[in-house]
Amino acid sequence: MASAIVSLHPRAAASALALLAAASAPALAQDGGAPASGPALTEIATFDHQVTGVTVSEDGRIFVNFPRWSEDSPTSVAEVVDGEIRPYPNDEWNSWRNTKKNVLDPATHFVSVQSVVADGRGSLWVLDPAAPATAFLVPDGPKLVKIDLATNEVTDTFPIGPDAAPQGTYLNDVRFSPDGSHAFITDSGPDGALIVVDLQSKEAKRLLSGHPFVKADPTVVVKHHGAPIRRPDGRGVEFSADGIALSPDGNTLYWQALTGKKLYSVSTAVLEDPNATDETVAAAVKDAGNNGVSDGLWMDDEGRMYISALQEDAIKRRDADGQIATIIRDERLRWPDTFSQGPDGRIYVTSSRIMDMSWYKPESPITLQTQLWSFDPGDSDASVTSSTTPEAQPQQR
Question: In this structure, how many other beta carbons lie within 10 angstroms of the beta carbon of residue 342?
C-alpha cells in the first residue's frame, strides 16, 4: 500500500528499463538472509489506532489514514503535525461512523480509507474502498477524493461505480500517471483486479478481474517469523493485488498480490488505451520476478524498488540491476505497510501490525497502537539476498 510524495517522478527511463530487464527470474532466499546493519529508524508518531497509508507532499507535509477494520475509527484521514494528528481536510469529511451509515451520505464522507497519495502537483488524493472490515461495500461509497493542499478543500470526487468495483472489491492503493490523466488502482478483494480511472472523463474500467496475475496465490501461506498467520477458524491472510509502484518515467506499472511472491508489470500505455480489454492487457503483462511476500511497494527516482518484507519485520530494496537486499530488519517494524518519500529524500513507512489484530489474535484489543517511521535510504549498508536476473519476457496468458 505504498503512498508517495507522489506517484509522479522525474523522468529516469534508463533506471526503470534496467529494473524491468533485470527482474524476471525468481529471487533467492526470500524468507531468510543475514540481518542488515541498515539505517536507523526515526519514530515520527505513534497512533492510538491502526494506520495503513502515509504520504508526504512536495513541501513536506505528512498525511496518514486509518481504515475501519476492527474498530469504528474516529478519524479516517489526518495530517501529522509535531507528532499529533489533525483530521483532514475537516471534521465533517471524517464524521462517518458505522452507526450512522443510514444517516450520512457515503459519497461525501470518508467511509473506510485505505490509502492517501500526494501527487506532487499540489493535491492530496484519498482512496476510499468504503468496505469496513474489508467486508460489505457501502453503495455509493467507493471513490477517489481530490483535495487542494493550498486551500485544504475538496475540489473533486471520482466515484468508482459497481461496474468497476462490484461487491467484494477492496480498493487498496493508487498511483497516478505523470501527466495527471489516469489513476491506477489495485483491488485486493478475493477476485483481484486493476482499475484504471480516466481523470478527465471520470470513467473507471476494471481489468484482469479474477486473473492469476492479480489473485492471491493459493499456494502461499503468509507467515510471521516462520509461523503461519491464521484466524481462529483456520483462514490465513488472503489478499489479492495490493502493492503497486510506478516507474520513474511513468511508462511501467508494477504490482503484486500480498498473498503471493511474484511481481508483475505492464505498460501504462496499454492500461490507458480506451479500447483495452482483459485479453490485450493480459497479453502485455510481464513476470517481473520474485519479491517474496510483501505489502507496500515504493519506487524511487533511481528506479530502486522498496519492498515491505512483512514476514521478517524488514524492508528490502530491489536495485535496478535486479539484486534484492535487506536494508532494515527491526522488530519494531511489525508489518511494514506503506511507503512514501519526502522532499529531503527520507523514506517514511507505517507499521500496521496486521498480524496482531483481533482477526488473528482474539486476545488482542480491538484498538491497536501503531507507528510511523522514517529512515535515510542513503545510510543503508545492506546484505544482498538475491541474484541478478535475466531479461523479462512477456507473460503468457
Answer: 18
- Kindly state whether residue 5 falls inside one of the protein's structural domains: no
Phi, psi of 378 (to 5 degrees): -75, -15
With a cut of 90, say whether residue 205 has pLDDT above it: yes
CA atoms of 3 and 172, how far apart (whole Å): 11
CATH number at residue 97: 2.120.10.30
Residues whose CB is less than 8 angstroms from the CB of residue 291 and which lie 6 or more positions away in sequence, other chains included: 27, 30, 256, 261, 262, 263, 297, 305, 307, 316, 318, 324
Structural domain count of the chain: 1
Residue 59 in contact with residue 6, Cβ under 8 Å? no
* pLDDT tens string 206-251: 999 999 999 999 999 999 999 999 999 999 999 999 999 999 999 9
Residue 7 maps to a domain: no
The lowest-confidence range among 1-15, 232-246, 321-335, 340-354 is 1-15
pLDDT tens by residue, 83-104: 999 999 999 999 999 999 999 9
**Distance in angstroms (rounded) separating the CA atoms of residues 184 and 24:** 22
Range of the domain at 374: 13-379
**Alpha helices for the chain (secondary structure H):** 13-22, 268-272, 278-284
Is the residue at 396 inside a domain? no
159, 259, 337, 33: CA torsion to nearest 10: -160
**Grid cell 516462520 in the structure block, residue:** 226
The C-alpha cell of 5 is what? 510524495
Q: Is residue 384 situated within a structural domain?
A: no
Q: What pTM did the predictor assign?
A: 0.88
